[in-house]
Design goal:
This protein has about 350 residues and is of the alpha/beta class. The protein folds into two domains: about 150 residues, Rossmann fold; about 160 residues, Glycogen Phosphorylase B (Rossmann fold, 3-Layer(aba) Sandwich). It contains 15 helices and eleven strands. It starts with a helix and ends in an 11-residue tail after the last helix.
Length: about 350
């Protein structure tokens, strides 16, 4: 559903392989991926999918193995105690049968409930190592489980480890695609519709005619990013403004290697753009994006401020000319190195 999550999974699996984990890796998740994703992203990496709704199969999938709980906003209490309790239960099974448990590349949200915090406290106590992707999430974890401080740290998002796959394309100024990656869910939208339309119209007017203008849907469900993106394209009715769905990691990597400028209130488009050496324009709207913009050394914009800039400043802010907002290369490389070290303390014995 969300290619950002599949890129997290790809990064985790490749890091596990580098650490020495051979054979089939079991992926325990909530929904069975589409057939095309299973074929391209799972079969190619020798992954087996197990639904955590089948509790017996989920337990069997981690029994006698090391367990990695990783990537994205996984430390989340929005749905109550079910998910944190399940993670704690699987961690208990892994540890009881001699496996190691690691939490890596995660962020946190919705941890106010006492019951949710109690479940996560059990999980954090069971983990051998905890690595968050931002300092605020690290503070959340230590507030719940103070004893976890000695085994916890904040490093980087797992996707930074894919820098080598995403980098090495033509310089940003020589690429054709200017992309707006939208964020929309049935309960929340972080992309203002009217401001997005204004922004896209100005890009159409001021960009080189040879440039492609793309509204990118990272979440391909019709009531999430995809439907929102299609609505923008319909309202604009400009032939060169197209919608791009990203369903597999191969499609995602190929797309970002063509991107000249990425504009987004989503976090992973900014990370992917940074790894691909694109011009990056993070938009205000979430704690995650604010953190990643600060760590990469690029400024954030309110969409309405960006859309209302004078023409010359607008072109410069979006990299429509020969220069534009590149991230701090040394900071990006440091985060890539940090991401590659997330699996450092797991046992590499090809279990």
């Amino acid at each position: 559903m969300n290619v950002g999550d599949e890129m997290i999974l790809r990064a985790a699996v490749l890091l596990a392989r580098e650490a020495g984990y051979g054979g089939r890796i079991n992926v325990v998740g909530s929904r069975v991926p589409p057939a095309e994703v299973l074929r391209q992203d799972y079969d190619a990496l020798d992954l087996g999918f197990v639904s955590w709704t089948r509790v017996g199969r989920a337990i069997a999938a981690v029994a006698g193995r090391d367990l990695f709980i990783g990537g994205g906003q996984l430390i989340d209490g929005a749905a109550g105690v079910q998910n944190p309790l399940l993670k704690a239960g699987l961690a208990l099974v892994a540890r009881a049968m001699g496996g190691r448990v690691m939490i890596g590349g995660v962020s946190s949200a919705n941890l106010r409930s006492a019951a949710v915090r109690a479940c996560y406290d059990k999980l954090f106590r069971l983990a051998h190592r905890i690595v968050t992707r931002d300092e605020a999430s690290l503070a959340d974890i230590i507030a719940i489980t103070p004893s976890a401080a000695s085994k916890s740290e904040s490093l980087a998002d797992l996707v930074f480890s894919l820098r080598d796959e995403l980098g090495g394309a033509a310089p940003a100024a020589e690429r054709p695609v200017i992309a707006l990656a939208v964020h929309h869910t049935p309960r929340m939208t972080l992309t203002d519709r009217e401001q997005a339309l204004l922004l896209l119209r100005r890009v159409h007017l001021l960009a080189d005619p040879a440039h492609e203008i793309v509204v990118a849907a990272h979440d391909v469900r019709s009531d999430f990013d995809l439907g929102f993106a299609q609505g923008l394209a319909t309202d604009l009715n400009i032939p060169r403004v197209t919608v791009r769905t990203l369903r597999t990691t191969a499609e995602c990597i190929s797309f970002y290697r063509q991107v000249r400028t990425i504009i987004s209130v989503r976090m992973h488009p900014i990370i992917l753009g940074a790894c691909a050496d694109a011009f990056c324009v993070p938009l205000e709207g979430s704690r995650k994006v604010a953190d990643i913009a600060r760590r990469l050394g690029v400024g954030q914009w309110r969409m309405e401020d960006l859309a209302s800039l004078p023409d010359a400043e607008f072109r410069a802010a979006l990299g429509l000319d020969r220069s534009g907002p590149l991230v701090d290369a040394s900071k990006r490389e440091r985060m890539s190195d940090q991401a590659r070290g997330i699996f450092a303390n797991l046992r590499a014995d090809s279990r």
